[in-house]
Amino acid sequence: MTCITFLGSCATQTAEQDTVSFVISCDNINLLVDTGPNVVKRLYQVGLSPANISAVIVTHKHGDHALGFPYFIFMRGLEKILYNTKLKSLIVITPSNLSSELFKIFNIYYTMELPFSINTIEIDSTNSVSLDKMKLTFFYVHHTVPTIGFVLNYKDKKIVYSSDTISFKQMVNYADNADVLIHSVLGVKEKTLSKITKIALADEVAKIAQNANVKQLIIVHFLPTYIGKEDIIKSVIRKYYDGKIVIPKPGDKIIL
Length: 256
Ligand SMILES: [Zn+2]
Prior knowledge:
Elements: E1 2-8, E2 21-26, E3 29-33, H1 39-45, E4 55-57, H2 63-66, H3 69-83, E5 90-95, H4 98-109, E6 118-123, E7 127-131, E8 134-140, E9 148-154, E10 157-161, H5 170-174, E11 180-184, H6 191-197, H7 202-211, E12 216-220, H8 230-238, E13 244-246, E14 253-255
The structure holds zinc ion.
């Protein structure tokens, strides 16, 4: 069984929503994807903790994806000290040069010697990483800073994450026949903001999902003005895409 647990799916924090982050769980692996400012609290809220996480991907350096990283690392170590929790080593996957930058920031705030080992992997052009039986293939997307997306294959399931990006042709190939495509969508008509932030709009992503024959399209990174009005995004996507559309809330799980 594969489970995706959403910690947040919005572009910003609000009372009811949070920045984009989720955990993909298969057998013994909990893979945390992106670490916004609230990531530790959101993990506890869904019954997980930093100690349960075996690998983390920080897709790019923007604060809504990376600011919670130093505190996540600190709390993983603190769990050992407070509760004597057994800790496995941690795999950290980032674009080129980002993991060293993140640990520089960690070392500004914390002086503790970590009670677990860390294996950092920085992605250059394309790169594959195996975590147990989970196979990850990374690719660079088109955002305002170097940003990685990935294809995850586990048994007969395929999950694809775009991270923050404008729509681009090659995504149809990456997402080809995916069980799940998790794609950033800013909104439905914010053309100028979409150009400035380099994050796609709903109709563009719907066409990618349709052309790639994706079974389930999960929308993340929408503007907070769409909270409670998610149906506006769904109705635009429905014009171009006939598969399942999901806009998750924190705590929502997708079981595959
Ligand atoms: Zn971003």
